[in-house]
Every structure is written in C-alpha cells, then in structure tokens.
Amino acid sequence: MAPRSASTQQQLTELFASIQQFTTELRQEMREEMMAQRAALDDQQANFARQLKALSNRDRLVLEQLQQPRAD
C-alpha cells in the first residue's frame, strides 16, 4: 500500500473528526427527541390515569344511586 501524502492524511484526519462530531451531535439530538417523546408519553399516561379515576368515581356514584331504595 502506497504511503499517504501529508495532505491526504490531514484530509482523512479532518474527515474522521467531522464524522465523529456529526455522530455526537446526531446522538444528542436523538437523545433529546426521545426524552421529549418520553415526557409526552408520561403526560398522556397521567392524563389517562386521571380520566380512568374520574370514570371509576362516576361508576361508583352511579352504582351507589342504583343501590339506594327508591321512594315510590
């Protein structure tokens, strides 16, 4: 294999550094996006839990009303 010239070696070094920087930035962006999605999912889950609790409370109240003797 022929030895590389100094300028070719420098270009390869710069290219490698550029690729490393790009990869680092891409990973950071992906991490931030995943964290944002996780936060959105956590919010949705909390909202769903509140809705489920409200439905359960409503069902309990309806059941209590149905069990009360009716005054005819």
TrEMBL record:
It comes from the Eukaryota. This is Uncharacterized protein. It comes from Choanephora cucurbitarum.
